[in-house]
Amino acid sequence: MTTPVLELRNVNKSFGPIDVLHDISLKVHAGEVLCLLGDNGAGKSTLIKTLAGVHKQTSGQILMDGEELMFERPKDAADRGISTVHQFGGTFPLMSIGRSFFVGVEPVIKWGPFSFFDRKTANETAVKAVREFGITRIDDGDRLIGGLSGGERQALAIARAVHFGARVLILDEPTAALGVKEAAHVLRIVFEARKRGLAIIFITHQVMHAMTVGDHFAVLIRGALAADFRKGEKTREEITDLMAGGEAMAELESEIESYAQSDSETSSAAQ
Ligand SMILES: Nc1ncnc2c1ncn2[C@@H]1O[C@H](COP(=O)(O)OP(=O)(O)O)[C@@H](O)[C@H]1O
Ligand SMILES: [Mg+2]
Fold it and tell me: For ligand 1, atom 14, which residue shows the shortest CA distance?
């Protein structure tokens, strides 16, 4: 087996007395999508913030290409090609597509002692980058981010990360707020990024979305890895059950049953 692009070895994270992540070990390879599943509060965001240099792990190691990483700040992770795309694309509604694509890395034209933001180059580069991902509806770099759909924003953010050489792409619930068609679109883009050899960590609690693009699945429950399996090893029902933590699901079912029962009692009493 090849060396994973990213590996976590026995990672723990506490905030003061609160233990949030317990002994997490995971590997992500190039050209592979790891789906990180788990209910609200399971520790998904804490895990990816640790990978992105926002938090420092309390103990354990994070390795890239087999070499241990030491992040002091988010920029260190970004410099190593670890790119996080947040739910809403993380961009500013009043900024143009071209501008937002180059935030922090603006192409400039120099004229004597002056330099200008090279709008034409920025626009052309941004539009070309998203088109390579099959988004042909974005054809004008001067358009504002606020006018794009949720799916288009995600596409733009992913295309941007790939353009600037990301090797690890972390997607935090990219399809959560989207309609079916838009979600399918984003999933296609995730697939495209996978084809280009990125190592992808896809966070979701929508099992169907995970099953569409995932090669490898990890389920977090209360900060611990409850399951770690590959495509085809579990059914949709088994994954849903796992995420709900088994007993929670059984509890819900019996609750629904008792509601149904009292409902039928009331209606028969009324007759
Ligand atoms: N900075 C923090 N300080 C203390 N507790 C935190 C902090 N960040 C997250 N937590 C706790 O860690 C747990 C996991 O949160 P989070 O990683 O956001 O879960 P998820 O993204 O899976 O919903 C929660 O109980 C949350 O309250
Ligand atoms: Mg979260």
Answer: 43
User: Do residue 102 and residue 200 come from a single domain?
Assistant: yes
pLDDT in tens, 41-80: 899 999 999 999 999 999 999 999 999 999 988 889 989 9
For residues 170 and 122, membership in a common domain is answered with yes
Residue 259: which domain range? 235-271
Q: What is the DSSP string of 77-138?
A: HHHTTEEEE-TTTT--TTSBHHHHHTTTS--EEEETTEEEE-HHHHHHHHHHHHHTTT--S-
Residue 199 in any domain: the answer is yes
Q: Look at the chain and report how many structural domains it folds into.
A: 2
Ligand 1 within 6 A of CB of 42 = yes
What is the distance in A from the centroid of ligand 1 to the CA of 43? 6
Q: What is the pLDDT of residues 100-141, one digit of tens each?
A: 898 877 777 777 877 778 899 999 999 999 888 888 888 899
